[in-house]
UniProtKB/TrEMBL annotation:
PROSITE patterns reported in the protein's UniProt record: OMPR_PHOB, RESPONSE_REGULATORY
Keyword Protein transport: no
Primary location: cytoplasm
Keyword Phosphoprotein: yes
GO (cellular component) term, any one: cytosol
Record's protein name: DNA-binding response regulator
CDD domains hit by this protein: REC_OmpR, trans_reg_C
Cited PANTHER family: REGULATOR OF RPOS, STAGE 0 SPORULATION PROTEIN A HOMOLOG
Amino acid sequence: MSKTILIIEDDQSIAELERDYLEIEGFETELASDGKKGLEAVIQHHYDLILLDLMLPSINGFDLCRQIRERTNIPILMVTAKYEDIDKVRGLGLGADDYIVKPFSPSELVARVKAHLARYERLIQHNAPKAEINIRGLQLNTTSRQVFINGKEVPFTTKEFDLLTFFATHPNQVFSKEHLFERIWGFDSMGDNATVTVHVKKIRKKIEKDTENPPYIQTVWGAGYRFND
């Protein structure tokens, strides 16, 4: 599956240049022309890497980088005309993975994107889910695909287990229903986002003491769901 890059850039010519070179290399891209639209895109969809301009309308790149990093660990590459060391240090301190100064070589941009995607893939593989996950009385065994609540086994369907495992291995992050449906069921599957809602409801009945105030899977209104570790 090809990687999807979100380009947050208010200069249309630069955004289109980045898009064209990335798509030539086989990447899928989406564009956001200001900070607010960029943040909305990150909340609603899944991306593999973000190219982030620093000087943006509505939300500047520094603030946007901080807010994105609170939600996801995917690579963030800042692309900006600012070149002072203090700006670079500040951007990296807020969670950016790299810093590219305009004007830049498109081939260098593509090379850095590929390098950071490869590095992130290695990091994910290194931090692959453990055979057993224990969270406040909830135990998942990813080898035997069993779920236990305070030592008592609770039966789970295949998709219920896959969804719960995804939540448990990505704690404290907000995922939209669209993202969850794509990750667990796939684009070509029959169904829609309501499928996610139904499965979350079933999982809550099995693991939550209080389904009205669930301690594990919380609803983030207007955004999706978050699993608390």
